[in-house]
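Look over this record before class:
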Amino acid sequence: MNGNLQHLEQELTTLQAQLNDLQPDQLQLVKKKNAEFRGKVVKEILKTETIYVRDIKLCQKGFMTVLEEKQAKGLELDILFGNMEEVINVSENFMNSLAAAVEGNSSEQQFIGKCVMDHSSGIHSAYATYCRNHDDAIALLEKYEENPEVQEYINQGLELVRQSTNCWDLASFLIKPVQRILKYHLLMAELYKYTEEDHPDRPNIQQALTAMTDIANSINEFKRRKDLVMKYRKPGQEAISDKIGKINMHSIKKKSQRMNQKITRITGLAAQTIDDDFDKMERRFRVIEKTIKIFVTDINSYLEQLKTATSAEAQVGHDISDYYASQSNLHDVNKYEIAQRHLANKLYKDYTIFVQQRVLSPLESLLNMFEGPHKLIQKRHHKLLDYDSCMSKVEKTKDKDKLKQSKHVKSERLTEDEDEGGRKLTVGSPRRLKEKKLPKEVKDEKEVARKNYEAMNIQLKDEIPKLCEMSLAIFKSCVVAFVEAERDHISSTLKKIYPLLELSIVQNSEVRDILPTFEVSHRSAVDRQYHFTFVPNNFDKKEKLDRRLSRRSMQPVPPPTKPSQPNTNNNQSESHRGKLEKRYPSERLFLAASDFRAKEPMELSLRKGDTVGIIKQQDPTGGENRWYVDNGVSQGFVPPSVLQPREGGVDACDGGSDEEQPVYFYAEWSFEATGPTELSLNPGMVVRLVSDTDVEGNSEWWLVAHEGQQGYVPANYLARIP
């Protein structure tokens, strides 16, 4: 076997040598021609790169520099030129590397592929960013056509660059980087075509061809996705006639398919494609939008209420001035009217303008911008339904083919015969069927649906997070502006109001409780008006007046729970103190430094000055925040903070601090005591507050004293005497 192989190899070598002898000139001619073409391709690459770098540097010099120096109003250079400077730096470095690899080197030493691979990462980064921005730059350039000032600067730049290159307009310069990046893979393909297989740079050229093709494909795919998104992001509302014009059999079929797919998804009869990242991003987008809408609504409501309040205050000031028109202190009253009029007119107007310009207008514009993403999200949902519908159709087609094959296998049994391969089949063996491929139209429809869905999905996942971050930044700045506006408005208001407190009419007033005084005066005035003859006889003044006053101040209802009665058995007497002195040593006798009311079971109520004997300075759990004591009547727990050593007697406890000032209240309504621990009240009766809770800490009942009697009354029946 080995001998036969060696013999065959020798024969092939001999035939090759004979062929070379027969056609030596032709083979050499082919290699020479390839070398010439390769040299031309290399020169073309270097020459076009040099011209391209020259042109974009002219664009930088003639347009970017001029427009930066002029600083025309509303000029957005970052969008117009994008990262042109980065593209220039990358391209110039690449050009220099190409020149170093070509000039002075033979064809075998020209490593063009290696040079491209060394710069492929920087080229991809710079050109991808520029191409993403190019459509926005062209749209902005079209907008500047309506700006004579900017057009004048652009024309000046054109005159400057036309001296060195043929150029029609600025747009032809801005398109050059896009055109250049899409030519690299074509140039690499030509170079690879004419490079011999034994050339040392051929593997590098193959890698460069793959890298440049991937870059071109990614840029083209991004452009396709963006075009698809822009197709559905047209501003404005479509006319009814346009919508009717779009109705056809294709659109009706699509809508019905989407409806069916939606129903099957809801019922769980069909699988659905889920993108958790997109769902999370969409929820965040909608939360931000809802927050901004609520904020804008609240501010508008607040401005309306503030307008109503300031207008009412200004009217009150005017009415007060009319009332004091014939009195000597009219000058002071007029100052109040002027201040309120200033608040209602000047300050409110300035405040509203500031809030409208710095808060509401930016947020309303932002909310209008959200209409585009909403439409795209809806279209993405439709594309997802189309894709899922196509996937279901593919699965159904496969299932039908499997079912047909299964039925065929069961029904058809072959006798002894030969199959396609010439093999004998025994009786009862099934005929083998070829697996059917999916119909081409089904595969094409599925592929188109997949690309459309992925294009919408990827584009939205790229743009919506940026929109959310931008929206949050705008929203935060608007919130800060609103807080600043509120601060300045309040400060300006106080500056106008504070001087009014120094007016003599305010300083000389003996009224301190304005509202109660006004209420009494108002009631008196209302009563007097019914003495006039023009009041109708059938007018029931008391019923009307009582009903009117009852709406203002209804007598409160006493608390449903009665006050907890103190344990009178705990009251300490002199005999109890004597028992304690006999029962406990002096170092274990303490005095109550303040009143303590038991709030929990096993606690002991004490009065200030009571003597107690310490049984244990701990509670059952070992904690030291409650001591177990004996007051001669009963035993229980008290906090050690209310106790002090008994040394020095009772006077040591009583003489430690000054007597607290008593607090007095008056009864606003009558109250009838229902038990021995309660105290009856009459309107206007003055009482002294003993405790603002009952023995269990309930603050709805207060312990008060009046003319030597003590008892509990509802706290909401009392008003403090200033």
